[in-house]
Amino acid sequence: MSQLATAAHHPENTTLNRRGFLAGTTAAGLTLLQPGLALGTQANSKVKLGIVGCGGRGKWISKLFMQHGGYEIAACADYFADRADGLGEQFQVESARRFTGLSGYKRVLDAKPDAVVIETPPYFHPEQALAAADAGCHVYVAKPVAVDVPGCLTIADAGKKATENKRCMLVDFQTRASELYREAIRRVHAGDLGPLVSGEAVYYCGTTWGGDEALGANATNPENRLRGWGLDRVLSGDVITEQNIHALDVAAWIVNQDPVKAYGTCGRQGRVDRGDCHGNFSVIFFYPNNVVISFASKQYGTGYDDIGNKMFGPDGTLETHYFGLVRIVGRKSYKGGNQPGLFTEGCVANIAEFHANILKGDCSNPTVAPSVRSNLTTILGRTAAYRGGEATWDEIMQAKEKLEFDTKGLKA
Q1: How far is CA 23 from CA 56, 166, 368, in A?
Q2: Structural domains of the chain sorted by starting position, each given as residue range(s) with its CATH number in brackets
Q3: Closest Cα partner for 282 from 270, 267, 295?
Q4: What is the pLDDT of residue 44?
Q5: Is pTM, for the whole model, over 0.85?
């Protein structure tokens, strides 16, 4: 399995409740101690987590939360008992706080954690994130935030609800946590390339997802689809939304505008699994001011991997690679550097930032709106590619097409 493929896997108080304390203020408006002091002097200052989604990435990221030192896992949920128990045993979550079924996340919320970490199939992110925000929890959610336009709008609502409730919400894009990316794109926005003219974004990798064995037993069985959700268009949003969003999020970050329209195509050639996701996408995105971004991806085969962007202006070129070089070459060059461990390092940085924001009470939640925009950008590209033609931003926003997963036969 390629490097990119491996990485892709993979008590209430009447005057002061715990979540209010960890938001940074008391009911009387007193400021919390500095984070370092708080963790050293307050026995209950660790953020209590509820983990929703206990598969491979759920267990992996839970380990990073625990390595941070400022968190403890109080409850967990997964549709499948073996996964909930696996994570629970690894992180010493008592059996009474391991929940299963489609509504397991609700039982996690009933346990009143300070924060909820959402690592379920993307189809479920909007419902679970909004419920967590409504419950007064801080929310840490994996990308993509949704698989369709209504889900993206729900995530936007969840972000607003979190801010209203003085709670933090963070979307886990690793590139946006990288200082190399931040500085390079800050320079682009400052005009170091001159006016942006055109660019390209790519996501090339090999076979990524497991679950094909379950689909081979019965590809229409909903539990088997959950086991192999990364191979399922509805549960994942297809590869352009679930995986390729890493490249398109960087493009959206750079351009910093909604695309006007897209023209695209896609196919399943090259894939050998029994899912229904596509193996390649080719899309041209048209932005205001005649800025054009070409995008291409593949998720099959071997021999070449990259998650990259090149953006061009009259005064220079920005080049980024998820597992490597970030730089600007031109009249105002930026040497940048390499960040080969971004998959883990970005998560570690986001986990630390999430904790710091909770303790500071910084609920501005700046990652939500950009993540919604880039998610919608992938949906625009997907819509155009499925048609083998054109789709416009205004059209998809007005249509609000919803993907439906039939949960009949699944345990509540």
Answers
A1: 30, 7, 18
A2: 3-173 (3.40.50.720), 176-340+364-399 (3.30.360.10)
A3: 295
A4: 59
A5: yes
